[in-house]
Amino acid sequence: MSILSLLIAAVAPGVALLSYFYLKDRYDPEPISFVLKLFFFGVLLVFPVMVLQRTLVQGLGDHPFVFSFLTSSLPEEFFKWFIVYFIIYKHTNFDEPYDGIVYAVAVSLGFATLENVLYAFLNDYDFTALLMRAFLPVSGHAMFGVMMGYHFGRAKFSSDRTSRHLAMAFWLPFFWHGVFDYTLFVSKNYWVWFMIPLMTFLWLRSLLKVKRANAKSPLRMATREERVKI
């Protein structure tokens, strides 16, 4: 593959998934500039996370369970959570529950996209390998972003249990990211039998969260009231 073709193949899955979840915002799509801003922050996260992960490997070793949960999942999901909470959570543009999903997915896919590009160029990946990464790591990051964003939305717009949902916005992606990585580690020769059911479950769960977040939009209620008046 040429360098340009390799770059396009590495970037395309993240852009496509971000577009998909952006267009799922049924009532008040977010400013594209803000979505791209969060995507860019996700890209920038790759470098400090890589340094931290290298340090953790040296200190904790590379046992599959330790690497999956403490070295890989913990720093990646924590820094994504940190960015969403401190950059956008209290912003006025975050004005309905589904916005949490859009912004968290943007951060997650920014991270996944640069990670995919680095893997492609450092490991001389071909198109087939990049296609597999689109279905697994890149898609997985999107699913973890949906979980995180859904609970950020619940935290901001629920009248109670705010702290609980803020905690779940971190702990659920952390847990499932760890499960994802650990499954790949321990089933290298027969991973397809485990990853297909896991990814199917994560996708169905994410689509349900998307539907629920849209259903809780105050803008949906306003639209319904306007129709009743008409």
Task: Looking at this protein, list some descriptive labels.
230 residues
State mean pLDDT (0 to 100 scale): 88
Whole-number total of structural domains: 1
Major sheet attributes = none
Topology pattern, helix = H, strand = E: HHHHHHHH
User: Uncertain spans, ≥5 residues at pLDDT below 50?
Assistant: 224-230
The share of residues in helices is over 70%
Secondary structure: number of strands: 0
Which outline best applies? globular
How large a portion of the residues is in β-strands, by DSSP E? under 5%
Walk me through what this model shows.
Its EC number is 3.4.-.-. The chain has one domain (3-229). α2 crosses α4 (97-122) and α5 runs parallel beside α7. 38% of the residues are buried. It has helices spanning 3-23, 32-60, 64-88, 97-122, 127-157, 162-186, 192-215, 218-229. It is an all-alpha fold. The longest helix is centred in the middle third of the chain and has 31 residues, at 127-157. The model is unreliable at 224-230 (pLDDT under 50).
